[in-house]
Amino acid sequence: MVALYSSSVLTDEALAEIWVSAIHWSLGGFQYQSNGNEVPVWKPTVFIQRNELPYRFERHGIEPVPIVFDHILDVLVSKKEAITVAQFMEMCQRKSMLKWIVNTTMTTPLRWGMKSLWNALVGANSHSQHSIPYLSMPVLAALSSHVSGYVLQHHEVFDYTFCLGHTDCLEHEYSFLSLCRSASSTASCHVRRFLEELPPEELQWIAIHLVYTKKAAMTQSAIKFFGKDAKSIEVNECDNTMLLLNHTISKIEKALTTLQTEINTMQIKAIDSKKRGATKEAINFWRHVKLMQTELENRQNALLNLISTKHKLRTMHVNAWTVEGYKLATESLRITRDTLHLSVESVEEALSSWNEVVEEQTQIEEILSKDTMNSVDEEALKLELLSLSEPSESSVEVKEEEITLLPVAMQTEPVKATNEVTNKGTIEATYEATSSKKEKQIMMSK
């Protein structure tokens, strides 16, 4: 704030940048108090006006140096953060790339060059250059971005169209004014104040900025928002008919309210006439009440049919999306099948080849099993396995009295063990021990 009270901002780019944002902030109608609080003092606006800036930054009755404001406005214009209404409309009306190139490379430099030359010749000062109001582009960008995000988040696709041109529908939910007021409920403090208190004639600049940033399309009477995946950006006949249907429903609702008020008034008159004893007048009033009640019922039925039609139109939108979804799913399946080379013929061929290979392998196994020499009975193996027991750890004991002397010629024959259950190793050990004992006895007897 102190920088605006001196000319130091003319040479200090950092201070100039600070007060560029301060100019945009002041459009919200806020003013800093001595205690540092922000207090809303003026009505918010999207226009930067040179003659309003001094008192917006007044401090203790002292206004900033005028040349500083002129310098800051020069910076804003050079950065294209402040542009005139004519320039903004020209930017929005550029439709072809060729026209944009010609305008950027030839028309605009020539215009600014001639303007600078004229100002130098006539000695015009910077204050006269900023006599017209400028649109604050950062403010418009913040407002349009928030409104667009609010619509895409809180509205269905078939409710993306809002009314602009009719003055009798400003307070209805399908009007752009009502949309901006509703969007203020989810905005920050500064953006909320703009959306809540901007006059309707300035809200149109938000709509134009939405079109300029390709977030919406606009006609004389309607504006339609678009998401990121929108195929076409235009307001079509379907959108116009939906708006007209909303207008008709609103008119009938208003007519119903008016008719109900007339019925109530006529009933009061009939009761007053009855109290005064004017029976004939009371009957006429009451007859009028009955006729209006019949008309009220007819209008209510018509309103009900129109509301039902509105819901059917929404259902048609959903059905159209469903059909489009089926088309996309079908195309996706077809492309995936072609990419993976899947078909009925290929699947049948693969299964047939597999069955042939499996059958051939089965035949090979049958042939090999028939040629086996030793066929084993599985049941006999199981029974033999069950009859087996663990071998004994102790060797077979042979008693001396059971040993009989045999001739020498018979000594080479093996001795039979008394225990048939013993294993082969134990029998051989016992045989060797018995043989050595017999030899000793024979030698002693000789």
Distance between the termini: 143 Å
Q: Measured on Cα atoms, how large is the radius of gyration?
A: 52 Å
Write out the strand line-up for the largest beta sheet, numbering strands in chain order.
Answer: 3-5-4
Q: Structural class given helices, strands, pairing?
A: mainly alpha
Shape: flat
Report the β-strand fraction as a percent range.
Answer: 5-15%
Detail the poorly predicted runs.
95-102, 112-127, 398-423
The average pLDDT value, as a whole number, equals 77
Helix content: 55-70%
Topology as a string of helices (H) and strands (E): HEEEHHEHHHEHEHHHEEHHHHH
The total number of structural domains is 4
Number of helices: 15
* Number of strand segments: 8
Largest sheet: 3 strands, antiparallel
List the helices and strands and how they pair.
Layout: H1 13-26, E1 30-32, E2 38-40, E3 47-48, H2 53-56, H3 66-78, E4 82-83, H4 85-93, H5 97-122, H6 126-129, E5 134-136, H7 137-154, E6 161-163, H8 176-183, H9 189-197, H10 200-212, E7 216-218, E8 222-225, H11 237-276, H12 279-340, H13 344-370, H14 378-387, H15 424-445
Antiparallel strand pairs: 1-2, 3-5, 4-5, 6-8, 7-8
Helix pairs in contact: 7-10, 8-9, 11-12
